[in-house]
Amino acid sequence: MATPTAYAILWPTKFLPGTTDNYVSNEVIAAGLTANQVWPFLADTAHWEKYYDNIGQITPPASGSLLTPEAVGSRFRFATFGFPPLDIELAECVPPTATTPGRLAWRAWQDGDADSALEVYHAWVVENTPWSSEGKPFARILTQESQIGKPAAQLAEAQPNPMLNGHQSWLDGLVKYAKSKN
User: Which residue spans within the chain are E strands per DSSP?
Assistant: First the structure.
């Protein structure tokens, strides 16, 4: 039996994977959760520090901690991976439905000279899978990030890869947290 093609990230041309200084992709299939059970904890910045220890100093958008379609274009800030708080602009926010994926994406940047400037595009897809087991649903959660700048190139060379491992922690923490709340 063929399975449908999984939804993918909608990349701005500037951040196409393979054309930037660093790119990582992480994905989990969460047994026993639906996309709608995961989404509230991803789309609300007030929850992030409760399940992801590599983020802090979150300054939510002026509209509040909840990232919504109406907040697209708004700015917020947070610190991660040892960088001071990055400037962030919400680029995409589409909550999931029973049949369509949720999408969340932001552009982040750190101004500076050739050695310190950084640009990032971080995106998420949260969707229900077309299968279940023993009546339990499965949610697919995909996060990918593409980065431009010398700090990004340095992260790409580090072993073990801090971005790959950090984003896996974010996914694992999100799933564990969502399960504890549902």
Answer: 22-31, 55-59, 75-80, 83-94, 102-110, 118-128, 138-148
Residue 166 has which token pair? 């950090």
Round to whole Å and give the CA distance between 141 and 38. Answer: 9
CATH number (domain holding residue 56): 3.30.530.20
Residue 26, domain extent? 21-181
pLDDT tens, position by position, 53-100? 999 999 999 999 999 999 999 999 999 999 999 999 999 999 999 889
d(CA 94, CA 42): 12
pTM for the complete prediction? Answer: 0.94
Quote the number of domains for the chain: 1
Lay out the sheet containing 55-59: strands in order across.
22-31, 138-148, 118-128, 102-110, 83-94, 75-80, 55-59
